[in-house]
Design goal:
The protein is mostly helical. Helices cover about 60% and strands about 0% of the residues. The protein has four helices and no strands. The protein has helices spanning about 1-10, 15-30, 35-55, 60-75. It is flat. The mean pLDDT is about 80.
Length: about 80
């Protein structure tokens, strides 16, 4: 069934990389460490560190970091992000 669904959604936005990665995971209920809140926060912080040194404004990345920090403060640091 997952293959039928995935093939039916091909084209347009459905062929984007995020959907190619996360749709099969959700259909097969695979939990991977890539989508954990604390892992995503680590990548957001790394991106902000790089932009800080180049003085590049990244307001949406700062917002994403704040939202992820809020999830960590609520004890959801090891939660699977795409399941939230």
């Amino acid at each position: 069934m997952p293959v039928l669904f995935f093939n039916a959604t091909l084209g347009g936005f459905a062929t984007s990389k995020p959907l190619q990665v996360f749709v099969p995971r959700k259909l097969e209920t695979i939990e991977d460490l890539v989508a954990r809140v604390n892992v995503i926060l680590k990548y957001v912080d790394a991106a902000l560190d790089v932009t800080h040194h180049s003085e590049t404004p990244m307001p949406m990345t700062v917002t994403a970091g704040g939202l992820h920090r809020m999830l960590v403060a609520r004890g959801l640091n090891s939660a699977c992000f795409d399941a939230l």
